[in-house]
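User:
I would dearly like some help making sense of a protein record. Take your time, and here it is.
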Amino acid sequence: MELIINGLKQELDARTIQDVIEHFGLAGKPVVVEAGGVVLKTEQWADTEVHHRMPIELVHFVGGG
């Protein structure tokens, strides 16, 4: 399915936001997800279904100095 991840078209085999998070290797990391203009809580990821061309913003945090 074609999704718009951080402004870029991506072809992913995903049904839910949790699938998207796992695809990018972000499971268990501090991530903020906005899907369709709504910021989602972590508990909502598994129940939030994605649809064709859904805009999704993923923001993850990295440490450094």
Q: What stands out?
A: The domain at 2-60 is CATH 3.10.20.30 (Ubiquitin-like (UB roll)).
